[in-house]
Amino acid sequence: MKYRTIKYLFLCLVFYCAIPISVYSQDKNIPKELYTAAGIPDSLKEDANSVVRYASDEVTVTGAGKAVVKHYSLVTILNEKGDKEADLGLPYNRKFDTFSDIVMRVYDANGNQIKKYHKSDAYDGAIISEDVLYSDDRFLRIAHTVTSYPTTIEVEYEQTLTSFFNPPTWYIQVPEQAVQNEFYKVIVKPEMGFKYKCKNINLKPDQSQADGSNTYSWIIKNLKAFKLEERAADWRVEPKIVFAVNKFDFYGYPGDISSWQNYGSWVYSLNKDVCTLSPQRVTEIKKMTDTIKTDKGKAKFLYEYLQHNMRYVSVNLGIGGFKPFDANFVDQKKYGDCKALANYMHALLSAVNIPSYWAVIFRGENGEPADVDFPLNTFNHEILCIPFKNDTTWLECTGNTQPFGKLDITTQNRNALLITDKGGELVNTPKSTGQDNQFNSNVELKLDSDGSAKAVVKILCSGVYRDDYVEYMPTMKYDEQKEFLMRLLNIKQASTFDYTAGADNNGVKEVELNLDYDKFCDIITADKQFYRPNVFDLCAITLPFENKRKSDYYFDTPLQKTCITTIDLPKGFEIEALPTNQTLKFSYGSYDIKYVYDAAKNEVISTAKFNLTDHVIPAAKYNELQQYLDAVAKAQNKKLVIRKKA
Q1: In terms of Cα–Cα distance, which of 310, 167, 178 is closest to 242?
Q2: Exposed site from 18, 87, 421, 552, fewest CB < 10 Å?
Q3: pLDDT level of residue 19 (50, 70, 90 thresholds)
Q4: End-to-end alpha-carbon separation of the chain, Å?
Q5: Positive or negative CA dihedral for 161, 167, 171, 172?
Q6: What is the SS3 assignment for 609?
């Protein structure tokens, strides 16, 4: 099925992904009613955009890195949200993967065949992205345009593999898809050290032995569709089974993944001969840093040297998707991908006798961590770890704006595999805290008697908030910047909008906004004016009520936000009513707002604080979170009332 296949396809764009393959095994006696929409039980239609009528997958592992994989699937698409099932994408490598055939058939609601595609109809393209210069990863694609519903898609193919780390994961079910019949089979020789692990499902296989091989067979029947709840982590919900064998062969490089230590030794063997700079460059690097007294100071200098002189470019050819460029090559060419730049940084540090470790990791916001008890190649990125005596320092070597010693939200709070001369060791990367992600603002708001206003907003931000202004804003045009900021901060529409990017020091970015409002006042009566007394919201999130939340709710990070707003009243006006001070508590955060009126200056000063102490909110606390955010929204909407002086 397309969704499960294509899910692998985009993982291939980044280094350290397992070879993604789906498989075929067709039972020719499939009942005809499975081809017709009328044969779908009503219980399987609820919340479903598509239904897997019948799927049969078979993997025969014939040796290290060698397998024959077969796939058959019959999926009925119920509505346009299920159209992805008619878009088949199959990633492959020309040297190591061979398709014997690919067939896609399309049936109408009554089970009549209306279209048939073969391998010769498939588009054959390179898997490449903006930052990938060269890659030998490719994909075959057959995309059928669905014109009526329901439509049933039948897919079958067979593939021979001669290079992979582990057998493909069985993605049993994706959100908003029901499963009527699904079968999975793995045939493997005992000496391969086969193992499996269920995720988000408890499913035991039938086991048998024949011709010196073990066979594991799983069956799924009548699995109802589910919806992925808002801000839930899919890997915590979607049922799947992961598979592994102890021995692998990847692009002609054999290895062992029976333990994290062994897999780390394989990665180390790829790096150990490309991680040293020439003697001349070592002398130059030492001279560059000889006036810096501390190792950490030297590391910071060299990290910034890397950022200012090297750029990220990916070249994934053969084992080059895993083996980094030689450090001397990067030094001369001034580019490399994540592993090449991490390796180059390792070489720079080695030149001044500072030890460091490569570390492979899965990069992605709230991504699935590596399983401590089930070694499996799920990594797609490489960073660097410096084990200073009292302060382990982590470096993201691909970003030229990342502060020294700070990881971003895609690699924080998960485990990474340190690569040492003794093998691999799973360790935790730093967990982001609210203090790491601060948004501190001061607003000068001048009200005019006609309801117009001028505002100057000054912002100091770090962590995830800094990324908004350092990573994304510079790539935008002025109108795009305005739209982005209006949406990001939930700013009331301004008639004039000026944005100025200030200094960026020690991981703290300065930003200034100058705003003019023809109408800032909400309501004007004869002698009174009613205002929502803030230019933007510290928290602009509200959530729907859910009676029985099943999944944890994920924010990006913990955070700390403050805003001090000074409101200058128009000449001839005074306060009639201040919004009430409020303190709101939540198990994982708080909101506090206080108002003070200075009669002598005829100004109101409000101080607001919003904190989130953990980014993962347990499902049992969701309703508390929902009610808390509603209360915050109401507190931010309280009115300031001023009146003309008598």
Answers
A1: 167
A2: 421
A3: very low
A4: 75
A5: positive
A6: strand
Whole-number Å distance between alpha carbons of 622 and 587:
10
Quote the radius of gyration of the chain (alpha carbons, Å). 29
Query: Which two three-digit tokens encode residue 65?
Result: 């890195």
Asked if 120 and 106 touch (Cβ cutoff 8 Å), the reply is no
Enter the tokens of residue 537.
């919201």
Question: ∠210-215-219 over CA atoms, to 5°?
Answer: 135
Residues contacting 175, CB < 8 A, separation 6+? 225, 226, 227, 228, 234, 237, 238
Burial of 261 (0-12, 13-18, 19+ CB in 10 A): middle
Hey, what are 545's tokens? 């009520």
Residue with token string 């460091």: 356
Amino acid at 543: L
Report the alpha-carbon distance of residue 418 to residue 612 in Å, rounded: 31
> How far from 33 is each of 100, 286, 459, 566, CA to CA, in Å?
29, 75, 63, 70
**Is 303 strand, coil or helix?**
helix
Query: How many Cβ atoms sit within 10 Å of the Cβ of residue 618?
Result: 15
Phi-psi region of 357 (alpha: psi -120 to 50; beta: other; left: phi over 0): beta
Alpha carbon distance 25, 152 (integer Å): 18
The token pair that represents 273 in the structure block:
């001969």
CB within 8 A of 553, min separation 6: which ones?
A: 229, 230, 231, 232, 543, 616, 617, 619, 622, 625
From its phi and psi, is residue 478 left (phi > 0), alpha (psi between -120 and 50) or beta? Answer: alpha
CA 63/CA 368 separation, integer angstroms: 29
Helix segments in 401-491, DSSP class H: 464-467, 478-489
Kind of pairing, strands 132-135 and 314-316? parallel
Tens of pLDDT, residue by residue over 123-143, are 998 876 655 556 677 899 999
Question: pLDDT digits over 239-279, tens only?
Answer: 999 999 999 999 889 999 999 999 999 999 999 999 999 99
The pairing of strands 50-63 and 177-188 is parallel
Is the distance from CB of 541 to CB of 614 less than 8 angstroms?
no
Count of alpha carbons within 13 Å of 405, Cβ hemisphere only? 14
Peptide bond just before 150 cis, omega within 30 deg: yes
Task: Determine how β-strand 559-568 pairs with β-strand 438-447.
Answer: parallel
The dihedral over CA atoms of 125, 130, 133, 134, expressed in degrees to the nearest 10, equals -20
Contact status, residue 394 vs residue 429, Cβ threshold 8 Å: yes
Quick one: pLDDT at residue 20? 32
In the numeric block, which tokens belong to residue 330?
Answer: 């990067």
What is the average per-residue pLDDT within 453-474?
91
pTM here? 0.89
CB 247 within 8 A of CB 312: no
Pairing of strands 523-524, 528-531: antiparallel
The conformation of residue 48, written as its DSSP 8-state character, comes to: -
